Amino acid sequence: MNRQARCLVLFSGGLDSVVAAQVMKEQGVEVELLHFVLPFDSYAGNTHESVRTYAEQLHLPLHILMEGAEFLTMVRENHYGTGSAVNPCIDCRIFRLRRAKQYMKEHGFDFLVTGEVVGQRPMSQRLELMPLIEEQADLHGLLLRPLSAQYLEPTIPEKEGWVDRKSLFAISGRSRKMQQELLRKYDLRSQTPGGGCILTEKEFARRYHYIEKNFGMNLLLFQLLSVGRYVLVSKEVCCIVGRDDRDNQRILAYLERNDASYPTLRMAHTEGPLGVLISQIPLTKKLYEEAGAILARYSKERQNTQTEVLVDTPEGSSMSCVVTPASSQFCQERLL
C-alpha cells in the first residue's frame, strides 16, 4: 500500500489559507500548517493566539517560523520592485516559498500548498507571474494552489494522483464570495479578509525611508518602525516613544532580543511611555534633556511645570534629567 502523501500549507489564518487547508483535508492527504511571523511580531512576546485558534478548529498541527535579519535583507535587496510603499511582494513570496521548501524537505513533506487566488493581489498573484515565482523558489511542480488550480498547469501532486484535480477550484479575482461559501460549507471561521501587510502602509514607508537615509537600517530599527511615535529631537536625533504599555513591552522585547546599544528614557516617578533614542551624532546632556521633554509630553505629567526623566545609557549607567514637558505643537511639528 502506498504511503499517504504529506503537504505543508502556508497558513496565515486568513480566509484563503483556512479554506485551502480544509480543501486539502478533503483530499485525504496528511496536512500540516506553516505560519510565518513578520519581524515586527517576531520574538516580541506575542503568542499568535488567533492563528493558533484557526489551526485548532481545523485539527491540524501548526508550525511557526519567526523572521529576522534575512527578511530585512530581502526588503532592501529586492529584485522585482515594490508597490506604492516598501512592499516587495514578489520577492517576499519567493523568499517565503524558499524557506517553506527548506522546511518541507527537512521534515519529509511531499509538496507545498498556498491559498493564493489568481488576480486577488495586484503584484504576486497575477496569473502570468505565478510560474515565475514557482521557478524562482525552485519548486518545479511542487507548489499547489487549490483555490485556482484549474487556471494553472497540473502540479506533481495532481499528476501523481495524490490529489484529485477535478475536485480543485477555479476561483479568480478579488471577490471572496466563493471562499465565504466554502467556509460556511465546512463550518469554519477565519480572520476577517482584507487586512494588509504593514509594508504597504504609507506611514511605515515614510519612516522606513527617513530612518534608512539618516540613521542606517538594522533589524532592531526595522522592528521598531511598527511601534510608537517617531519625534525628531533635531535633524540628527530621533526619539521613539511608546504609545501604550503594549508598545513599551514590544520595545523592551526588541531591545533585549537584539542586545541593543541605544539609550532608553523613562519617567522617574510615574508609569508612562518608554523612549528609545537614535542619533547620528554623540549625545549630550542637552540632547537627553530635549528628548526627555518629548517623552514627558506623552506622559501623565505633561501639565507639570517640571518633571524628572531617567536616561539609561548603553554603557549601563543612569542619568537624571529635570525637564519641562514639550508642547503639543512642538511634538506635532516634529512627528515623522
UniProtKB/TrEMBL annotation:
SUPFAM superfamilies: Adenine nucleotide alpha hydrolases-like. Residues 4-147 form the Thil AANH domain. It comes from the Bacteria. InterPro entries: NFACT-R_2 (IPR059101), Rossmann-like_a/b/a_fold (IPR014729), ThiI_AANH (IPR020536). The keyword Nucleotide-binding applies. The keyword Nucleotide-binding applies. Residues 228-329 form the NFACT protein RNA binding domain. GO terms for molecular function: ATP binding; CCA tRNA nucleotidyltransferase activity. Keywords: ATP-binding, Nucleotide-binding. Signal peptide: none annotated. PANTHER family: THIL AANH DOMAIN-CONTAINING PROTEIN, TRNA 5-METHYLAMINOMETHYL-2-THIOURIDYLATE -METHYLTRANSFERASE. This is Thiamine biosynthesis protein ThiI. It comes from Chitinivibrio alkaliphilus ACht1.
